[in-house]
Amino acid sequence: MRSGSMDKIRVIPCLDMKDGRVVKGVHFVGLRDAADPVEAARAYDEGGADEIAFLDITATVEKRRTMFEVLERVAAVVAAPITVGGGIKSVEDVEQAMAAGASCVCISSAAFRDPEMVREAVKQFGSEKILAAIDADANAACASGREVYIDGGRTATGKDAIEFAKEMADLGVGQILPTSKAMDGVREGYDLELTRGIAEATGLPVIASGGAGKLEHFYEAVAEGKAAAVLAASVFHFGVFTVRQVKEYLKERGIPVRL
Predict the structure, then answer these.
(1) Residue 135 bears catalytic tag
(2) Which domain holds residue 28?
(3) Considering 31, 137, 240, 251, which has the largest number of Cβ atoms within 10 A of its Cβ?
(4) What is the pTM of this model?
(5) Helix (H) or strand (E) holding 171
(6) Would you say 87 and 65 are in contact if contact means Cβ atoms under 8 Å apart?
(7) 104-107/130-138 β-pairing
(8) Given 16, 50, 137, 191, the catalytic residue
(9) Angle between helical axes of 68-77 and 91-100 (0-180°, round to 10)
């Protein structure tokens, strides 16, 4: 699926995981407990989620691997594809995530530190199974005005986010998931400039992430940000909207979705 095509737009609830629970913060910090992952995943699956994202947000900084046993429990109760990320550092980790139930594996900090691993993962599993996640924050010194952050948004890299997205595309990843650190959890809208910039520069499907607070934000992500999918966490976890409400809103505005 290429950006700009009228394929059906995917709506993806995101389970940010810590200590076996779903949590949600603001600007990647101040995490509060939101749900049991198995219960949440089942509810989202029944509620029409096109995919479920399972992101172990502290795995890298805690120097451990993703909670594969929790993933297995989630995968056992949902039919929707699961995209898994957090602490994926090797091709073996990708393999284990797939074995535990992942349909697609998201590589973030390791993609920056070890791009060859991304190339190898694409070679072994195919582009459609490998996604590059890019956490970014504003930095006027970068050409695009956005700088790549790694380690769960804790470590600045000095790397331009759109340049990095192009490098990931060249390595063969099938999708890009950019998350704006500044917008994360504040519910003031996605970073449309970042999403659109990556979609235009790479031609890959881009998943808008970080900042959804109103139904309009989902529409803007697609219409202005050229996103192929919209991901959100807190508005779903805390009952602001359901997945179905988002889809109906998009459909009313001429955006193709699966209802």
Answers:
(1) yes
(2) 10-252
(3) 137
(4) 0.91
(5) helix 161-171
(6) yes
(7) parallel
(8) 16
(9) 30
User: One-letter amino acid identity for 256?
Assistant: P
Q: What is the pLDDT of residue 67?
A: 79
Find residue 102's DSSP bridge partners: none
Token pair 């890298």 is found at 60
Determine, yes or no, domain membership for 257. Answer: no
In total, how many domains does the chain have?
1
Please pick, among 56, 135, 137, 191, the residue that the annotation labels catalytic: 135
Q: What is the CATH number of the domain that holds 47?
A: 3.20.20.70
The pLDDT tens digits of the residues spanning 1-10 come to: 333 445 899 9
> Contact at 8 Å (CB) between 185 and 25?
yes
pLDDT tens, 62-82?
Answer: 766 667 888 999 999 999 999
Distance (Å, rounded) from C-alpha 13 to C-alpha 41?
9
Residue 5 lies in a domain: no
Extract the residue ranges of the chain whose pLDDT is less than 50: 1-5
Within 8 A by CB and 6+ apart from 218, the residues are 11, 212, 230, 232, 246, 249, 250
- Is 170 a known active-site residue? no
